[in-house]
Write a structure and sequence with these properties.
By secondary structure, the chain is an alpha+beta fold. The chain has 3 helices and 3 strands; from the N terminus they run E-H-H-H-E-E. Helix content is about 50%, strand content about 20%. A 3-stranded antiparallel β-sheet has the order 1-2-3, with helices on one face. It starts with 6 loop residues before the first strand and ends with a strand. The mean pLDDT is about 85.
Amino acid sequence: MIMPDDIELKPSYSTKEVSGRCIKCLAEDKYGDCLRELLQGGIDNQELRAKYAALLSLLTSPELEQLRAETELRLSEGKEVKVLIHSEKGETKYEIKTN
């Protein structure tokens, strides 16, 4: 199976002017987009199927709440945060990067 490129999620902190998005909400949005594409005829697209599987893995992972808490903590400290989802040797891995 073809593994997807890294999936990048950039959560943001809510302010008065801008409504933020947590990592779970961003993953759910991308998951829904993948599902729609698959249902609209992309079922044979192996890369899309791998991306769908990686997002589903994150959404069902016990690590999701820990990742969410850690990203929100870093956002509250004023840091820019992104979460990378990638596969290594058939296993889905999550990595938090900050600027």
